[in-house]
């Protein structure tokens, strides 16, 4: 069997020699990563100049190979073109986009640096699977270096509507770069449609999601990323007995807990969510002292200006809500700006009556699936989910909302608070079945089977 080579901007930290800690991509690829596989990417470190020096570590039979980034590249490639241009544009938030030619040049140079370092590690039969928007140009750079291996790419974030994609000055060049892959994977049918429409606007027609030009073929597929449902259920079962979860329950004094857990990112819709919660407290006064809302917001990309602005806005809104509605013995919002471990979150999800997941736009969003997996079947909570998360298409029994409509979100919280046990059970059973069907192993197996099939 061919060796699998994963390429992603971030590589799991295995510096203590043990298997990587579970996170989105680690869980998504767990089934595919066999002893002998290679995972290549950025070390998370910056140094003086650009270098192709590869650092290798082994854990559980998998080799993790990384390169450092030069400090100016970290700024221009990572903070700049990746996270100030592509990230907001692909999430269809054009007012957040900045574009700088020098940053784009650095992005291409880093993608070439990745390719250069990778060629030295590749064997002729390796299957190469590249992940996400930071690395759109790696395959094209590999092809220029003469690499003929099968190369697949998966986009974890949305592909924007073609009119928005066209705003990107190097739009054409990036489409060409994507066609250097044998296989392109998208989270949803809409993402694939947007990509094919962007191609068409660029004068390239696809047939059945497939582009043939000269001797080369690029196929596109829809394959949603998922979680390991059983593993998360076990985690929640263990975590709920931990002292933190018990302390949480005690502190509620019989009130219902509503939980949200996100990276502190403007795409996650936190300010609108706080507004919706405030609207709920104002519009349904009878519910006020019956609920407590916990928002965990893990710091992210703090050197990007828009993220700093978000942080200030949330601090202000959280203070305003608590100042206005708190009582001597009740605080409506608990707002934590630290990351919480997966185990703790799983336990908190299990004891929460409502999971509130309202991104303005999201590639998939696995928090909703984790919330579903964490629930106990005898008394499950209710998932409120943005219709603009990729997961919405897979989870129709969630209470789906438009996150921009704060009255709608407020009404959904009220509905969730008063939903009968019977309805909660029915919805949860259906949602759990969907999460199981579209789980992590279905994701990696489907993608790799298609990559193996690529002509
Ligand atoms: O899921 C999207 C994503 O951008 C990943 O590619 C990335 O690793 C993760 O979110 C966290 O962001 P960052 O790597 O910028 O901290």
TrEMBL record:
The protein's name in its UniProt record: Alpha,alpha-trehalose-phosphate synthase
Family the entry assigns: Belongs to the glycosyltransferase 20 family.
Parts of the chain that traverse the membrane: none
Superkingdom per UniProt: Bacteria
Coiled-coil ranges per UniProt: none
UniProt cross-references to InterPro entries, sorted A to Z: Glyco_trans_20
Organism: Acidocella aminolytica 101 = DSM 11237
GO molecular function, one term: alpha,alpha-trehalose-phosphate synthase (UDP-forming) activity
GO biological process: trehalose biosynthetic process
Gene3D superfamilies in UniProt: Glycogen Phosphorylase B (3.40.50.2000)
Pfam families in UniProt: Glyco_transf_20
């Amino acid at each position: 069997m061919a060796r699998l080579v994963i390429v992603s901007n971030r590589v799991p930290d295995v510096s203590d020699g043990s298997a990587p800690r579970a996170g989105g991509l680690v869980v998504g690829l767990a089934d595919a990563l066999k002893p002998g596989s290679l995972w290549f990417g950025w070390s998370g470190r910056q140094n003086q100049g650009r270098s192709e020096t590869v650092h290798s570590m082994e854990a559980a039979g998998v080799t993790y190979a990384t390169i450092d980034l030069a400090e100016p590249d970290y700024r221009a490639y990572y903070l700049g073109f990746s996270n100030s241009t592509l990230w907001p544009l692909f999430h269809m938030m054009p007012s957040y986009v900045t574009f700088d030619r020098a940053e784009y040049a650095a992005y291409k140079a880093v993608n070439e640096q990745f390719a250069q370092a990778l060629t030295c590690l590749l064997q002729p039969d390796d299957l190469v699977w590249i992940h996400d928007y930071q690395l759109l140009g790696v395959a094209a750079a590999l092809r220029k270096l003469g690499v003929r291996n099968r190369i697949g790419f998966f986009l974890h974030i949305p592909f924007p509507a073609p009119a928005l994609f066209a705003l990107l000055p190097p739009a054409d060049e990036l489409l060409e770069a994507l066609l250097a892959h044998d296989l392109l994977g998208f989270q949803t049918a809409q993402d694939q449609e947007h990509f094919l429409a962007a191609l068409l606007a660029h004068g390239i027609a696809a047939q059945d999601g497939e582009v043939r030009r000269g001797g080369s073929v690029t196929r596109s597929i829809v394959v949603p990323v998922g979680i390991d449902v059983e593993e998360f259920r076990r985690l929640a079962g263990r975590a709920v007995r931990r002292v933190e979860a018990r302390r949480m329950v005690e502190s509620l004094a019989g009130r219902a807990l509503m939980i949200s857990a996100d990276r502190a990112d403007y795409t996650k819709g936190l300010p609108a969510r706080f507004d919706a919660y405030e609207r709920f407290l104002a519009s349904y006064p009878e519910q006020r002292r019956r609920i407590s809302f916990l928002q965990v917001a893990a710091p992210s990309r703090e050197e990007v200006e828009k993220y700093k602005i978000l942080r200030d806005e949330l601090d202000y809104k959280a203070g305003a809500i608590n100042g206005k509605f708190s009582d001597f013995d009740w605080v409506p919002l608990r707002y934590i700006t630290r990351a919480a471990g997966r185990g703790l979150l799983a336990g908190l999800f299990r004891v929460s009556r409502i999971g509130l997941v309202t991104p303005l736009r999201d590639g998939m969003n696995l928090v909703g699936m984790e919330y579903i997996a964490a629930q106990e079947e005898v008394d499950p909570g209710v998932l409120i989910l943005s219709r603009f998360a990729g997961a919405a298409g897979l989870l129709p029994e969630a209470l789906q909302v438009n996150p921009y409509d704060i009255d709608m979100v407020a009404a959904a919280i009220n509905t969730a608070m008063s939903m009968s046990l019977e309805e909660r059970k029915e919805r949860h059973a259906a949602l759990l079945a969907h999460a199981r069907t579209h789980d992590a192993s279905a994701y990696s197996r489907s993608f790799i089977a298609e990559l193996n099939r690529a002509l």
